[in-house]
Amino acid sequence: MIKIVPKMKIFKILLDEKGIKPTYQRLKILEYISENTKNHPTAEMIYEKLSKDIPTMSLTTVYNTLNSFLEKGLVSPVTITGTEIRYDFNTSSHHHFLCKECGKIIDISVECPFSEGEKSISGHKIEEIHGYFKGICADCLVKMRTKVKDQSSGPYFKNSAKISSSRMEKIKAGKDKIIL
Ligand code: ZN
Ligand code: MN
């Protein structure tokens, strides 16, 4: 018979195994990161979301908890932006894409010759591989294309609406011309 183990119980076991006391706040932080692997949250994002339900939670607690998670390898740091650490529940080696438009960090599946097993490069032993790409995500590209279309039609209508009624009278009387 398959026994369904609640997620929180698994997290409790995980923290116990790593020698981290599984307090309610620590469990909630781990749960949040595990549920948000698509956006790779920062400490601030985690704090902002969780402190709404747990008012006693402080940003310092979030930072300290994340540091101990990193130390024990429970989560991995994603440092693409260079100004912040984003946290990833997926600790296996994988590549990322940073959207410069919306700030989203997306997992990218890349055939990486170094990903499997113990490898070396120019005689150096590889222990970690971090690959990242920067650009504009597919969602933002769609938004930008729609915006460009709006702008090309926008000024046309704005200009035609700007013709005053007195000028329109002159145009009708042949005393003014609309230059196209
Ligand atoms: Zn984007
Ligand atoms: Mn990731």
Concise overview:
The chain has 180 residues and is α+β, with helices and mostly antiparallel strands. 44% of the residues lie in helices and 13% in strands. The strands form three sheets. A three-stranded mixed β-sheet has the order 4-3-7, with no helix packed on it. Strands 1-2 form a two-stranded antiparallel sheet. Strands 5-6 form a two-stranded antiparallel ribbon.
Explain what the structure shows.
The structure is a single chain. With 180 residues, this protein is an alpha+beta fold. The chain folds into 2 domains: 1-113 and 125-136, Orthogonal Bundle (Arc Repressor Mutant, subunit A); 138-180, no CATH class. The protein is 44% helix and 13% strand. It has a 3-stranded mixed beta sheet, with no helix packed on it. Strands 1-2 form a two-stranded antiparallel ribbon. A two-stranded antiparallel sheet has the order 5-6. Helix 1 packs across helix 2 (24-35) and helix 3 (43-53) crosses helix 4. The longest helix is centred in the C-terminal third of the chain and has 24 residues, at 138-161. The radius of gyration is 27 Å and the shape is elongated. The termini are far apart. The model is unreliable at 153-161 (pLDDT under 50). Manganese (II) ion binds next to loops.
